[in-house]
Amino acid sequence: MAEESHRSSAAEIPVTSNGDLDQSPEEVFVRESFSSGHGALNLSETCVTPSNFASTAEGIIESGPYKGSASQPTSPVAPVAPSSVVAGRLARSASDSQAEKVMKGQPQTGAMVIADEFKSPAMEKLDLVRKWSINTYKCTKQILSEKWGRGSRTVDLELEAQIEVLRDNKRKYEHVVKLAQTLANQLSQMMQTQRQLGDAFADLSLKSPELHEEFSFNADTQKLLSKNGETLLGAINFFISSVNTLVDKTIEDTMINIKQYESSRVEYDAYRTDLEELNLGPRDASTMPKMEQSQQQFQIHREKYEKMRNDVAIKLKFLEENKVKVLHNQLILFHNAIAAYYAGNQQQLEQTLKQFHIKLKMPGGDAPSWLEES
């Protein structure tokens, strides 16, 4: 009884989940005194010292006697619990410490809430995969429907005719380039044979005094033909290179735009068909959101289709102008070079190469010497 009278009151000290003191006893009691009303502790009558705290067993702090009001009964020992304000501050402090542990990657206790920022990258990738799958399914369905004759397709008759002409011309130009390359290879072999034949005639002219003049004439003729063949071969190779550039770069660039246009056309028809099917079905609260979303997607793909159609039309117009200009010059070059070669007009053949700024490569002279570069 003497010990109980000596301990007039007791207070509970809050601790954290790991058993450490969340706040010092002095801070708890000071905050309690300011936040509570008439039932607060009198700080002048409360004795909290480090020596008392060290000697207190099981978290009991000794304090002076509590004097209540006249209308309230007094008790020798009364437990003091933190008020709602203190409890809220303690809860916020604990939640802040848990959040810091989460951000630092330290282990924590209790429930953990994952922020939306950690979920957003995965959710965005999943959403992209979902949209790609839906779009691929719709386009595949549209293509199969068109092949089976069950679905309708949007057709621009004028543009489709121009595209078909371009594809046919591309195949014919590639065939012309292939034939010209064959001619160049055959001419190169013939030139090699003419050079060998001219060397053989020149050797015989030296070893046959009685036929020296005849062998010399034939040797000079074969060497002249070989030289003119080199000039013609330079013109043919220039023709092949120019037409190849037209086919493999200029026309192929337009063909890439045409493929993109056709893909946008398939997407447009796929979403158009989807919207038409929804319009034919019932209209209620469950289908109206789908119809609105389908209408938005249809509008987006229609604008994309119209933009690609205009781009392809402009590309075809400029391609036609460039094609006419390039082929006009190259066909004149090819004709004049062939005609001058078989007519034996060496001067006209060389003039043709100068007209088109064609420089012949000397045998074994692929790289110019340092004297030519200077």
Explained architecture:
There is one protein chain. The chain has helices spanning 2-6, 25-35, 50-55, 84-104, 116-147, 157-207, 212-280, 288-343, 346-355, 370-373, and strands spanning 10-11, 79-80. With 374 residues, the protein is mostly helical. It has a two-stranded parallel sheet with strand order 1-2.
Q: What are the main properties of this structure?
A:
374 residues, mainly alpha, 10 helices
**Percentage of residues assigned to helices:** over 70%
Q: Which regions have little confidence, pLDDT < 50, spanning 5+ residues? A: 1-13, 15-22, 32-82, 107-116, 364-374
Structural class computed from helices and strand pairing = mainly alpha
What does the radius of gyration come to?
Answer: 48 Å
The rounded distance between the terminal residues' Cα atoms is 118 Å
List how many beta strands DSSP finds.
2
The fraction of residues assigned to DSSP E strands is: under 5%
User: How much is the average pLDDT?
Assistant: 74
Order of helices and strands: HEHHEHHHHHHH
Categorize the overall geometry.
rod-shaped
Strand order of the largest sheet: 1-2
